[in-house]
Amino acid sequence: GIWYQGENNVLTQDHHYYSHLQALIGGWRRLWGEGNFPFYIVQIAPFNYGATAAFEPLIWRAQEKAAGAIPNCGLASTMDIGNIKNIHPANKQAVAHRLMLLALAKTYGRKNIVYSGPVYKSIQRRGATLALRFSHVAGGLASRNRGPLTWFEIAGSNHKFVPAVARIVGRTVVVAAHGVPHPVAVRFATSDVATPNLMNTSGLPALPFSAQIKRGGH
User: Judging by DSSP bridges, how do beta strands 2-3 and 39-42 pair with one another?
Assistant: First the structure.
């Protein structure tokens, strides 16, 4: 199954997206009697929703949660192929290609298929910086336009987020910001208009995330 929906959940400020999606997938699987058949979700593309801007990142998070928690699911990201001025972005070929990668890897068992962009894995504080590690980095991390990494923010103990300078160091991203000597939290692409440039060497975009330091510095 492929789920490429409209944007009504964003516009209605839906706080129950994950449970709705879980019920939809489970209901279709029971109805069709084919077991846990593959179900691939297309991420809602970035768009300038204005007053509802705070809610699209929550739906992105719910879509990623569904792809990881519900058996035999996957997520095709659109972070880099949306159009913040057009709610119906035209680049459907890239969407189809990413769904194909998911199917080849997860349904048909093709080896050495990169089907996801970088996914946040862990955080470590190093002085005034935070070092972030990711899964699905393929041959490494890269900037899509070869420019500075965008849409990273960090916060200190006051939890006021400010734009961060982010750079690729080996297979990690290191972030820091002037005026935040002891960062405790980081977030990436948590805006409806976010079109970040972090990707892996296969050209697939990193997924949005938020993270904070736990006891022990991780």
Answer: parallel
